[in-house]
Amino acid sequence: MSEREQKKKPAPERREDVVEEEVPASSESSDKLKAEMDELLDEIDDVLETNAEDFVKSYIQKGGQ
Amino acid sequence: MAIEKILGIETEYGIVVRGSAEANPISASSLLINAYLASLGPNGGSSPQRVGWDFEDEMPGNDAREEALRLSLAPEVETHLVNAVLTNGARYYVDHAHPEFSAPECADARSALLYDRAGEEVLRRSMRASRHSLPEGEELVIYKNNSDGKGNSYGCHENYLMSRDVPFGQIVGLATSHFVSRQIFTGSGKVGAEAPGMRTDEVPFQLTQRADFFEEEVGLETTLKRPIINTRDEPHADAQLYRRLHVIAGDANMSETATLLKLGTTALLLAMLEDGDAGTPMVFSTPVPAMHAVSRDLSLDHPLDMADGRSMTALDIQWELHRRARDWADNRGLDAVGGDEVGNLVLSLWENVLSGLETDPMSLADRLDWVAKYRLFDAYRTRHDLEWSDAKLRAMDLQYHDLRPSSGLAGRVGLQTVVDPVDVERAITQPPSDTRAFFRGRCLERFADEIVAANWDSIVFDVGGSSLQRVPMMEPTKGTEEHVGRLIDESTSASDLLERLGR
Fold it and tell me: What does CATH list as the number for B7-426?
């Protein structure tokens, strides 16, 4: 573990000459993300299996490769 | 020297007959595929439904390890079930009680992604077509996942053409480090655990569908005691020159980014290996537990014990593999993996995704399946105050992979796309132009009536003579549009084509 702690940062020899194309979502947009997620949750309520328990139980597959 | 990384994906889909208590999955799969074939029209020129699969070259029991112990059970070839060849060069058939779509051979990762997507669409069309063949109230539903949540798994396999010159042991070293660590972006996500001896709720959520089912490091099996490295030695090509690396360790992905990265990064690393540029292998002390640990570690921080005494995380290993791949690309170019455009796309996506995983994994909810799933399920769980083991979340886990547009969740979470839907539409019926799949697909489109059977490396014609004529295609890079496009176009019949081919 201690060795791991030492080498955790920086990540192994990343190259610097690559332009980062995207910046991860910043906190200012987190409200927007939350609103979008709320909307999605409302939307999927209409499509989710009505009887989850039965559906999960009945989903049985034969093993394949 | 790295050879062209011809590659492809084969997917076994989950199948359910809704409205029927005692459905047989083999008959259901047959019905599904037959319904699709029938929907292509009765012998309408492009109908391949009478062309079956030719089993002449099927030898899944061959083992790549020279000293292979024959204790393992060789896989059986099922020759009696529905087994069709499509005009896009794919094989569409019933395998182990599942419908399987084996996409045609492709020349680069993006093309292989395109045909994986085309396969999804073929399954969607099959579901629609099957409605007419089922009693009122019954419906076939297809799932692009790898497990039923009860310990039964079915695969999404990748295939890569490799030079026979590379000793198999070298492939094992590199591929094991990649297959264990790439799970951080290839995982489709799963609620619960299914590994033998584990309680389902022992793991709330894990990165991959498949990790639970891997019990061996190297081996021939695909249906039990699955190995991280599968040794099936069945090149479907000139065996003196080539091997086909048959990879069973991946998840079926709904995310196009995940599929592209899974294929693209693996192709890059295998090409590097052929050039002797793969570097020192990063060897795990215990690969199988490492595979399980990576899948179950949502913090992406789990230290894995390496054989040299160090410890590394999956991310550390991926960054190192990425660095080596960049160096290889700088020194050798990207021709072996399909050229600069695709190669650079894979390299930059790979880097972006690793950066995202390092700084804020949730920022990848529009690119990676496991992140999209986790983010959605966690929000749902919080809103309804549910345990991870709740049946509602298990149901959502299945429904994420439901291919019906009306109920599938993956289509609703905002995943970015990589390929153009217009190209997907074309790939449903047209073969790739730049591998031997072109010859297979185009011959089927033009001369289906005169073809008895086809498989990966040959087509058998019946042009009315005293014997059937087999045209071998042992070289996967030949038979492209450039090689034979005009020849096929100008041929007025199969016998004319055979004559022009000098037979």
Answer: 3.30.590
